[in-house]
């Protein structure tokens, strides 16, 4: 049943997510061709303005894919579980865990797809612009494959788990925020802000404890270590990977927070539902 729910989620969110990705790739092709012929064109009037417009639109499409998909997923969650559709969803012969997990898994897949497609769009722009020749592009791909093959598998495990954990954290943070503040009848926006601020302050406190762990591991292992996957100086989801000790502790810490947010969301949906 989880697979069917995920299929439904892809259809619902793909109505906006897929066109956003398609527009970004189309604008990448056009922007690459514009850059190819822009320098050799003597038409500095409308051609220059049109070229600048296309490049700006491509940059906006990258931003729209990065931020727009996240907004679409959050709005779909609110409408599907906390709005009018919530009454219908609760009549389905599925558990609340399946409903939540289907949304979370689909969100993570969308994030990975958006990241990959954004990278491909950048490659299209560079390749079609003519700045990189086909032979140079092939050499670059070979160097990239060689670098990937020579990279320690532990690094990729930590990196992938860290990326997925951070994306899940951001998603679950807003799930919990929307669900918990839904129980209030007034000033929901204020409570939304307060919940996020309180949670980020809590992460900052955790960051201070991470510093103590860093010092302990540095003294014990005679090497630099970091446990700051969350609550870092550059933001609540800054990832540090400086040693196996710190990165593993940070991953455990991150996923424990994800579990906390998940069960907060599940508990409020199950025991204190307040559908609009």
How do you describe this structure in short?
Helix content is 80%, strand content 0%.
- Helix % is over 70%
> What is the rounded Rg?
23 Å
> Low-confidence parts lasting 5 or more residues at pLDDT below 50?
217-245
Taking the sheet with the most strands, its summary is: none
- Helix-strand sequence: HHHHHHHH
Number of strands: 0
Question: Strand share of the residues?
Answer: under 5%
Query: What is the helix tally?
Result: 8
The general outline is: globular
Write structural notes for this entry.
The chain has eight helices and no strands. Helix 2 (46-82) packs across helix 6 (153-181). The radius of gyration is 23 Å and the shape is globular. Residues 217-245 have low confidence and may be disordered. It has 276 residues and is an all-alpha fold.
List keywords for this structure.
276 residues; globular; mainly alpha
Topology:
Layout: H1 2-38, H2 46-82, H3 85-89, H4 96-129, H5 134-150, H6 153-181, H7 188-221, H8 244-271
